[in-house]
Amino acid sequence: MSDLPHDIGKAAHHWFGKPISELSAHQQRALNRAMTRKPISKNINDAFQDRLTFGQRLADQVATFGGSWTFIIAFGLALAIWVGGNLLLRRAAFDPYPFIFLNLMLSMLAAVQAPIIMMSQNRQAAKDRLDAAHDYEVNLKCEIEIMALHDKLDQMRNEQLQMLVAKQEEQIELLTRLLAERLPRA
Q1: What is the DSSP letter of 43?
Q2: Do 1 and 142 form a contact (C-beta atoms < 8 A)?
Q3: Tens-place pLDDT, residues 104-121
Q4: What parts of the chain have a pLDDT lower than 70?
Q5: Which helix H or strand E contains 112, and what residues bound it?
Q6: What span, in angstroms and rounded, lies between the C-alpha atoms of 131 and 159?
Q7: Which residues have a Cβ under 8 Å from the Cβ of 83 and sit 6 or more positions away?
Q8: Residue 123 in contact with residue 60, Cβ under 8 Å?
Q9: How many CA atoms does the CB half-sphere of 6 hold within 13 Å?
Q10: Contact 4, 148 (CB under 8 A)
Q11: d(Cα 34, Cα 11) in Å, to the nearest integer?
Q12: What's the predicted TM-score (pTM) here?
């Protein structure tokens, strides 16, 4: 915007009422982008996804599958088959009632799956924090540009008002001269 101050220090005082040294990194970045008229938007998902390790991607896939209806239905079927098979085999069952081996397997699954899901949730929370910080910068830049537009509109309105007043004064002067020429002098 042409109404943005050319000096970043003046811009900091103008838009934030503080010296540049007191602005946060987000505020400085948004102000700099507004002054240079560069976009600030970026896809946080792409940037975040590129930095994930194999283990982190695997944890995300495990968490995605573990929280799906496919997993719940498949797991329910596996449990029903396990329990049904062992009940039908009675004395020859490899895990007779009260299904102690099944309880051991379920405990081990929960012990492994819970931390993997928590790792995935922690990463999602970190991504959400990055996304929120980026949204703040975009919103801040938009606010700066909207304030600059308001300043420009105010300036244009004042210039138009001054031109209107000058025109009115000119018209009054012209009417006064015409009246003076037309009226007989006494």
Answers
A1: -
A2: no
A3: 999 999 999 999 999 999
A4: 1-6, 185-186
A5: helix 100-182
A6: 42
A7: 99, 102
A8: yes
A9: 0
A10: yes
A11: 10
A12: 0.65
The number of residues making up the chain comes to: 186
- What's the Cα-to-Cα distance from 135 to each of 16, 18, 39, 114, 119, rounded to whole Å? 18, 22, 13, 31, 24
CB 141 within 8 A of CB 4: no
SS3 24: coil
Q: In the chain, where are the structural domains located? A: 8-182
Q: Which residue has the tokens 């008002």?
A: 161
Task: Report the amino acid identity of residue 81.
Answer: I
- DSSP secondary structure of 69-110: HHHHHHHHHHHHHHHHHHHHHGGG-SS-TTTHHHHHHHHHHH
Q: How many CB atoms lie within 10 A of CB 12?
A: 20
In whole angstroms, what is the distance from residue 27 CA to residue 140 CA? 7
Terminal CA-CA length for the chain = 60
Q: What are the structure tokens assigned to 162, written together?
A: 């001054």
Contact 8, 16 (CB under 8 A): no
Give CA–CA dist 35/134, Å, rounded.
Answer: 18
CB-CB neighbours of 104 under 10 Å: 11
Cα dihedral across residues 104, 106, 107, 109: positive or negative = positive
Nearest to 58 by CA among 124, 114, 116: 116
